[in-house]
Amino acid sequence: MSEMLKIKLSIANRVYPLTIAPEQEEGLRKAAKEIEAMIKQFEQSYSVRDKQDVLAMCALQFASQVEQKQIDKESVSEHVEEKLVALNRLLHEQLNS
């Protein structure tokens, strides 16, 4: 078992101390950086100054991206399944003729 790592991440002018597995560090730091960039974008684009509102907008943005990816993945899976069923039907027809 690997040793845990203590890091500090700054998000919306607050520091969050975390104890994590070393393999999580890169992902967490990238996520914090992306959140900070999104905060700046929302503050500039919508003149929002309340950090709670900005963070809520960030959370909604990230959650909607996750949900959309899941919807897209399910759609692709259905399409692939339909193609496989059609291919299987063709194979059976060829084998039985």
From TrEMBL:
The UniProt record lists the keyword Cell division: yes
Keywords assigned by UniProt, alphabetized: Cell cycle, Cell division
Gene Ontology biological-process annotations: cell division
Name of the protein in its database record: Cell division protein ZapA
